[in-house]
Amino acid sequence: xxxxxxxxxxxxxxxxxxxxxxxxxxxxxxxxxxxxxxxxxxxxxxxxxxxxxxxxxxxxxxxxxxxxxxxxxxxxxxxxxxxxxxxxxxxxxxxxxxxxxxxxxxxxxxxxxxxxxxxxxxxxxxxxxxxxxxxxxxxxxxxxxxxxxxxxxxxxxxxxxxxxxxxxxxxxxxxxxxxxxxxxxxxxxxxxxxxxxxxxxxxxxxxxxxxxxxxxxxxxxxxxxxxxxxxxxxxxxxxxxxxxxxxxxxxxxxxxxxxxxxxxxxxxxxxxxxxxxxxxxxxxxxxxxxxxxxxxxxxxxxxxxxxxxxxxxxxxxxxxxx
Length: 322
Hints:
Blueprint: H1 2-31, H2 37-66, H3 86-89, H4 99-114, H5 117-125, H6 135-138, H7 148-165, E1 192-195, E2 198-201, H8 208-223, H9 228-244, H10 250-269, H11 271-279, H12 281-293, E3 316-317, E4 320-321
Helix pairs in contact: 5-9, 7-8, 8-9, 8-10, 9-10
């Protein structure tokens, strides 16, 4: 019986293994479908470059933050920072404990006590300073769609000046007036600015808006000499708005006007500006024509004495009185 029992057991074992083997063979095609395999093989290969790109960008950002924000010569059109000696064009700001600094603070406090809402509103309008700020002074409407070369030129000048300010020596660094708790600005505080994608502390000396306004006005005066006085007066309004709003000291503005005048003189003497004026001839001619067509203001007639009869001219016809 023992051999027979052993044979039955072996036969049962053989019969149990056959269905299991058949089941496994039938399940193989469903477990590993051929059409889905290629995407699995290609996606791991494409993933590493996509994941590595953000890391590379982060490292580049870190390197950019470590390096000081210095302008490149190729970025400048009319002014080259390497050729401008700022210490020769403008003196260093007053020391914090000096009498001139105390005078600056006294002027800001005096303006702060007396400025009206109308004054503050006028100061706020100066925040939108651009080339159109000089429309009234120029007696013409400036529009970037009408005068693209003009606007492109002044945008390049603005960029040059902003890059140049980054090169100010360490001795020019000066805190903003609101470092004194008694001075309460009515304009937004400028603790940091972005120039060419670089974030830097907003130095108050010299006053940036007044600097740009002075340069713009001087260059426009070079193009429209008959409006020089009105243009420069309009530029001074930007500087006054900064002191009225309590965000710049008066000496900040004076230094900006001094430096702006010197920089504009250098731009005008350069070959790039001379060539650009040739490119601007057509647009300047259009501005001149539109200015000529504008109606002139009617001057009031001089007042006459009502007690005296108005003089009348004798009327004649055909050479003989009527």
